[in-house]
Design a protein that fits this description.
7-stranded antiparallel β-sheet; alpha+beta; 329 residues; 3-stranded antiparallel β-sheet; globular
């Protein structure tokens, strides 16, 4: 692998690394202190606190007026480009990620709110999407450059396992505004002309419902993912504890099985069954015996299957404890 001589020299020069990073951080701070930026940052603070976008004049104008959006981005670009010209190997101090044909850079983050620059590039042969995801977040965008074809999907009817979708095709170009309503709308890009660049404002729900993915041809639910960061962390911790066979964690796992999001509770029950089948069956019996528990029916079904396949887990009613509701199965 070839390593550019400049990069190789910088890698071994810690003093230059610190100097360049300090210059980058100073450029970011200078941009945030600009009066025009400071106003937007203050209004983003209000938006993060629950204020409607329509009551925040500067922020609303930014997402609805192409001149305002381009001016805002130009000021950010000017501050950062000045340092990059002197230090082309400098690392911009903003969160960023990329994948083939797509890049996103988050230039402001405040709690549940983010303001980002997105850019799509043509990807020959990528095809059109076969599914769409619906997230619990408000999303406002304005096109800065380029053009693209895409779909807007809306949920018009919903059951637990299926959604009725209404889809419309759009052609977006510079100056167009795109608004996506939380949980019920989804925006997709599938054909890009040039570099399709947007300024995007997102506000996540304080207690977000799961992100759901539906097949476009049938409306069937094909995937569901937790949208809450803390819940995802707990779910990963559960997986690690289960893989490590940590029986000492059973009391905490049992507590998780009794309250919280349904998918996390069910995951906790699953790990409890794997670590200690008797205690896992006891948890299932409690859930199955709670008349208003959302997991009552799947818990009852699983108990019935376990009773048939592993009767040794059900030696007597006293195994569940005198204070617990007997299993209805």
């Amino acid at each position: 692998m070839r390593i550019d001589p400049q990069l190789k020299a910088l890698r071994s020069d810690r003093a230059s690394q610190r100097r360049i990073q300090a210059e980058m951080d100073s450029a970011k701070a200078a941009w945030r202190k600009l009066p025009s930026t400071a106003k937007i940052l203050a209004e983003i603070q209000g938006y993060a606190g629950g204020e409607p976008l329509d009551r925040l004049d500067g922020l609303a104008e930014l997402l609805r007026n192409a001149d305002a959006a381009n001016g805002f981005v130009a000021a950010w670009t000017k501050c950062m480009a000045r340092v990059l010209r002197r230090n082309p190997l400098g690392q911009i101090p903003f969160q960023q990620s990329s994948s083939p044909g797509f890049v996103i850079m988050q230039i402001v983050a405040n709690g549940p709110v983010s303001l980002s620059l997105l850019s799509y590039a043509p990807r020959p042969g990528s095809g059109v999407p076969s599914s769409a995801s619906f997230a619990d977040r408000e999303q406002d965008e304005i096109v800065l450059a380029g053009a693209a074809k895409g779909w807007m999907h809306g949920i018009t009817d919903l059951t637990k396992e299926k959604a009725k979708l209404a889809t419309s095709e759009h052609y977006w170009s510079a100056g167009d505004c795109i608004r996506t309503v939380a949980q019920t709308q989804s925006r997709q890009i599938f054909e890009v002309e040039g570099h399709f660049t947007l300024l995007q404002l997102v506000r996540h729900a304080s207690d977000p419902r799961p992100t759901r993915e539906y097949a476009l041809n049938t409306g069937a639910l094909i995937h569901q993912a937790c949208a809450d960061k803390r819940t995802s962390q707990v779910e990963m911790a559960l997986a690690v504890l289960g893989e490590m066979r940590r029986r000492d964690a059973l009391p905490a796992i049992a507590d998780l099985a009794k309250c919280g999001p349904d998918h996390l509770r069910w995951e906790a029950v699953r790990h409890a069954l794997a670590l200690d089948p008797i205690k896992g069956v006891s948890l299932l019996s409690e859930i199955a015996g709670a008349p208003h528990d959302e997991l009552r029916i799947p818990a009852s079904r699983l108990l019935a299957k376990l009773a048939d396949a592993h009767p040794q887990l059900f030696p007597s009613p006293q195994s569940f404890g005198e204070s617990r509701t007997p299993c209805p199965v």
